[in-house]
Recover the amino acids of this structure.
């Protein structure tokens, strides 16, 4: 069926040195601006003052070693 020139199923190797650099974060919310200014230093301060976390970068900055893990997924 094939003449050996088919590219189907063959992938190019990934470039290991390529990493996209995240642009510098510019906060858009009050909590983000407070964090950048240094008024907030821990996630506990946000929870104690019942402030909404609307930007992912807030959690990334306060908890840099946080990792995600899927435990179990079942259909109901």
């Amino acid at each position: 069926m094939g003449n050996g020139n088919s590219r189907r199923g063959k992938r190019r190797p990934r470039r290991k040195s390529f990493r996209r650099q995240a642009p510098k974060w510019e906060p858009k919310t009050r909590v983000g601006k407070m964090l950048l200014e240094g008024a907030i230093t821990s996630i506990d301060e946000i929870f104690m003052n019942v402030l909404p976390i609307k930007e992912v970068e807030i959690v990334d900055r306060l908890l840099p070693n946080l990792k995600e893990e899927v435990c179990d997924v079942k259909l109901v």
